[in-house]
Amino acid sequence: MRPNDLIGAQDRVSAEGNHNCSSSVQSTPEIEKKYVHRVYDAIAPHFSATRFAKWPKVAEFLNSLRSGSVVLDAGCGNGKYLGFNPDCFFIGCDISPPLIEICAGRGHEVLVADAVNLPYRDNFGDAAISIAVLHHLSTDDRRRKAIEELIRVVRRGGLVLITVWAREQEDKSLLNKWTPLCEKYTEEWVDQSSPPVRSQSASLLESIAETDEDAGVMKQADDRLKKCHDGVEDKTITACSNSNADENEKNQQEYFVPWHLPFHRAEIGGASAAALENGFAKKDEKKGTVVYNRYYHVFVEGELQSSMTNPTGALFSRSFELQGKGWQKEPFEAGIYGNLW
After folding, report:
1. Which of 335, 328, 228, 232 is nearest to 284 (CA)?
2. Which of the residues 55, 77, 107, 320 could staple to 324 if both were Cys, CB 3.0 to 4.6 A apart?
3. pLDDT of residue 208
4. Does residue 339 contact residue 314 with C-beta atoms inside 8 Å?
5. What is the mean pLDDT of residues 182-202?
6. Contact, 54 vs 77, CB < 8 A?
7. Structure pTM?
8. Which fold has domain 3-169+300-339?
9. What 3-state class would DSSP assign to 169?
10. Contact between residue 334 and residue 164 where contact means Cβ atoms under 8 Å apart
């Protein structure tokens, strides 16, 4: 894909959909557009510059594939795994046009695409990987659909490797550095007519407006969200995160994870300047950074496996913890699946 082809691609792939995919899954929630898509578009060069280490288990998986295998990387980011095994043929896709442009500039075969609507025919690849992607999807249905898409696009007997952020951390202080989506605001944000869902935090996310026409509702939600997750100067975050702390910690799965973009980075101009002006990002003068918040759903033990309980044709094979060099304090949950269709 040429750089000029990337213009508007993100909006197109979010709007287009698989006719077999329900509108609720197909429609990208506003929280993902704002706190995933927009953030990665804004930080793409800096993100890419910090993402080069390969996790050993992912490398082991890729190196185990047969020569000539077609490998599909869904949510390829800066493409650090594309071409990792020189005996395989890799195709990458990501929702972020700036990240795809970085991949294309390195000579990789890539395109802009949505994880819940992969642009490949059934049984196209021999293997697929989804590395640190599913936790950016904000509903159970969308996460499940993304898994089903990965299974759909690999051949019978093919393999899929999935990694996600796990709530069970060896270093318990890690999650304390993140900002939970506060239960305090759930009642205001949740549509009372909605059917019961897994958790209050999931209800909160699913209630956020999904169309640009609902901008007024989104602005009100954003104002409340800022009070909940804004920086050190805003004391409301203390009350928000400390109230019923023990109970919240047990059930909390929805977080904002900060990304610190140094003042000296070129990205500080343009999009970041606008983000600061409209309150989408904030300055941390002490660290000399512009801070963006990224949405994360952290998975509880067994949640990834349970996503395969519906008849997708996949068989859960095994799970393991990813703790490669430099990641000892940030374990992921991972699973390898095989396509039985």
Report:
1. 232
2. 55
3. 35
4. yes
5. 39
6. no
7. 0.70
8. Rossmann fold (3.40.50)
9. coil
10. yes
How far is 189 from 239, CA to CA, in rounded Å?
18
Say if CB 77 and CB 68 are below 8 A apart.
Answer: no
pLDDT digits (tens, 9 = 90+) for 99-146: 999 999 999 999 999 999 999 999 999 999 999 999 999 888 999 999
Q: What is the DSSP letter of 32?
A: H
Nearest residue to 161 (alpha-carbon basis) of 94, 75, 86: 75
CB within 8 A of 157, min separation 6: which ones?
A: 338, 339
Total count of residues recorded for the chain: 341
CA–CA dist 133, 292 (Å, integer): 18
And the tokens for 173? 């202080």
Closest CA to 312 of 128, 168, 113: 128
Sequence-ordered alpha helix ranges (H) in the chain: 9-15, 23-26, 30-32, 38-49, 56-63, 97-105, 140-152, 186-189, 200-207, 215-229, 236-242, 245-251, 271-277, 303-306
Instruction: Report the alpha-carbon distance of residue 36 to residue 34 in Å, rounded.
Output: 6
One DSSP character per residue, 176-241 reads: GGSEEPPGGGHHHHS-TTSPP-S-HHHHHHHHS--SGGGHHHHHHHHHHHHHHH--TT-THHHHHH
Provide the 8-state DSSP code for 171: S
Percentage with pLDDT > 90 across the chain: 30
